[in-house]
Structures are given as structure tokens and as C-alpha cells.
Amino acid sequence: MDLRELYPEIEPYDAGLLDVGDGNRVHWETCGNPDGKPAVFLHGGPGGGIVPPFRRFLDPEAYRIVLFDQRNCGQSRPHAGDHGVSLEHNTTPHLVADIERLREHLSVDRWLVFGGSWGSTLALAYAQAHPERVTEMVLRGVYLVRPSDEAWGFTPTGAAHLFPAEWAAFRDAIPPDEQDDLLAAYGRRIEDPDPAVHLPAARAWIDWEMCANTLLPATPPELDEPTILAFARITRHYIAAGGFLPAGGLLAGVDRIRHIPAVIVNGRYDMKTPPDQAWDLHQAWPEAEFHIVEDAGHGGAEPGTRHRLIEATDRFAAR
């Protein structure tokens, strides 16, 4: 099988900051064909922000590709890397409302929704709130934010078994008498106003997050201190609140989107969002096309995963 490559590098033809209320302005950009089929790319994290390779999963001749930095990260303002910035108005319902406001701002009637990792969570939440605005869905590295999913990432009984040294570094950044609840202990430190406290905690948090991103070890990106702090603050904020999802979680809302054509892709060796989450979503939504990539981890650009994602967006371009 000839694996599909990412589309060539491309620059935005338009961009801006959209006032979404609560003192927040969301950075957005559009690239590709201004007259093409609209598609919105939802980044992960939460708090990860967009990077140029995200533009390359969709055919720029066929799609009008919309990307944006979610609240308080990337080029959106205010930035959570400023420790004085409150996250009070950064929740999943706020982000869903931001997507709708951006759609209206760009005069898009309906669009394909593409999301990976936390982006898959947000894609499902958005589609369930506004199914009439979604033409198709492409989901990668499904993240349902259930208690069992969080236990995999943040207790000794999950991914820690596969990354023992990295887990030890994450755990031991917290004093032994607080290690019984690492999420709470990290929360106290990440939100401490003293940089000597919150910056080491944020670095330890992101080191643990990044260690399991790909099947084969990869050099993590070099990030500046504001980006590290924003990522750690926003991610912990969402995890502590169960993703700000409704009672019953995302699986309970599948009936609202069952009619939407969808492709679900997950790496067999995804250590961030193991394939049981994608499988459980597919069991609730058997109409969605389902692919396990046998030689992939969590990263969207890993060859087999990339192939399935681009195959899906190419196919949907013709609808």
C-alpha cells in the first residue's frame, strides 16, 4: 500500500482575532481554496494550539481549511502563559460556542469537522450541540475524558507501566506526602503565583505528556515558558473538571450525530488515548467507519495514521 503523504506546506490567505466574549479573542486562520469545501481543524491539548503541519491533512485545492487557537493558547488572547489570566471562562461549552461564532464570522453554512486527541473530544461535543452544521467528521486518537481514561494517564496503574522512568520523574516532582493525589498536587503548584513553583511543575507536567506521543521515540518540540505554562494550566484545568462534559459523557449523545458520515482512526499502540476509547465510541456508533492502525501510536502524522486521515478527507472532499 502506498502511504499518503501530508499535502505540501501552505500559508494562510486570511487570519484574524475574533472577539468571543468574556474578554477573549480567538486567533483564526484560513488556507487552501477560498471557494472550496469548508473544514475546521480542532487542535489537541487542550491548550496545544495550532502549528503549520495541521494545515496539511486536507487537499488545499479542494478545501477551505479553517484552523484556530482555542481560548488562552497559541496566538489567542489573553494567554494562559500569563499566570494572572483566569481560566474561568475556558470550558468545553465556551469552546463549542467559539466554533459556532467563528463559523458565523466566516459565513460558513456547514463544514467538515476534523479533530485529534482533545480535538476529537471537542469535535464530538460540537457536533452533538450543532449536528445541522456538520457535513462529516474525521476523528483521530479518540479521547472520551472518562474517569477510567484519566486513570490510565495519571495513576500508577496505566501508562506508567510502559514508561516507568518518565512516570517516576513525573511522580517525584511532587513530595512523597502528596503523591496520593498527583492531579491535585500539580494543580496547587501550577496555579501557585511563584514562578519558582509553577514553572518546574509545568515542565514536569509537559514532559510526562510528551513522552508517549509517538510509537517510536521522537524529539519533543522546543517550547518557550509561556507555552509550557499555558499547556499545563489549561490541560490540568480540563482534566480536573472531567472535560466540562455533560452527565453521561460523549457516548450518551451519539444518537444526535449518528447520521453524520464519520471516520474514526486510532493507533494500536497509542499510549495517550489507547484504542479502547475509539472502540467504545464505535460500539456506540457502528455507522462510523473504524480503523485501527497496527503500527502507530498517538501522533497524527505517523505514516499509517496519516494515510487513513488523508484518505478520509480526500474521499469526503468529493461529497
TrEMBL record:
<dbReference type="InterPro" id="IPR029058">
    <property type="entry name" value="AB_hydrolase_fold"/>
</dbReference>
<keyword id="KW-0645">Protease</keyword>
<feature type="domain" description="AB hydrolase-1">
    <location>
        <begin position="40"/>
        <end position="299"/>
    </location>
</feature>
<dbReference type="InterPro" id="IPR005944">
    <property type="entry name" value="Pro_iminopeptidase"/>
</dbReference>
<keyword id="KW-0031">Aminopeptidase</keyword>
<comment type="similarity">
    <text>Belongs to the peptidase S33 family.</text>
</comment>
<dbReference type="InterPro" id="IPR002410">
    <property type="entry name" value="Peptidase_S33"/>
</dbReference>
<protein>
    <recommendedName>
        <fullName>Proline iminopeptidase</fullName>
        <ecNumber>3.4.11.5</ecNumber>
    </recommendedName>
</protein>
<dbReference type="InterPro" id="IPR000073">
    <property type="entry name" value="AB_hydrolase_1"/>
</dbReference>
<keyword id="KW-0963">Cytoplasm</keyword>
<dbReference type="GO" id="GO:0004177">
    <property type="term" value="F:aminopeptidase activity"/>
</dbReference>
<keyword id="KW-0378">Hydrolase</keyword>
<dbReference type="Pfam" id="PF00561">
    <property type="entry name" value="Abhydrolase_1"/>
</dbReference>
